[in-house]
Amino acid sequence: MHHPLFKLIIKMSTSSDEGNCSGQSAGGGVNQEKMYKGVRCRRWGKWVSEIRVPGSRERLWLGTFSTPEGAAVAHDVASYCLRGSTSLHKLNFPSMLPPTARTDLSPRSIQKAASDAGMAIDARFITSRETAPINEALNISVDDYL
To answer: Does the reported pTM lie above 0.85?
Structure first.
């Protein structure tokens, strides 16, 4: 059972090339690398995310993902765990934050929670892309995999 706020609707499009980060986004015309906070693209087409720990120069590596959405959700989870509710207005997908996200986790636990959430979105998005007709809306929830 999922709260309606924990759903994300993603439009499918054939205009985006899975292995090319510099291409257009599914939304049309906007570079996906600049679309999501805390996400960047490797030359070979994988998406990565990391986040700076507040009050230090340390960074937490959150992982490598197949989709920019997966990397963005990982960044959101880590941002919330590190900064609490003050980060809500800066998240990529505020409604995707799992209700289990907590602010009392160790850095290693934050990495795991963020990576798990991002991988869940990746898995669901890729599976849906393979089975859904083109341009059909998808309901994706992090809670389905956590």
So the answer is: no
Which pLDDT tens digit goes with each residue over 27-75? 444 454 468 999 999 999 999 999 999 999 999 999 999 999 999 999 9
26 sits in the region (left: phi over 0; alpha: psi -120 to 50; else beta) called alpha
What is the distance between the alpha carbons of residues 114 and 118, in angstroms, rounded to a whole number?
6
Q: Which amino acid is at 29?
A: G
One-letter amino acid at 121 equals I
115: nearest Cα among 41, 50, 63: 63
Single-letter amino acid, residue 95 = S
Cβ neighbours, 10 Å, residue 68: 26
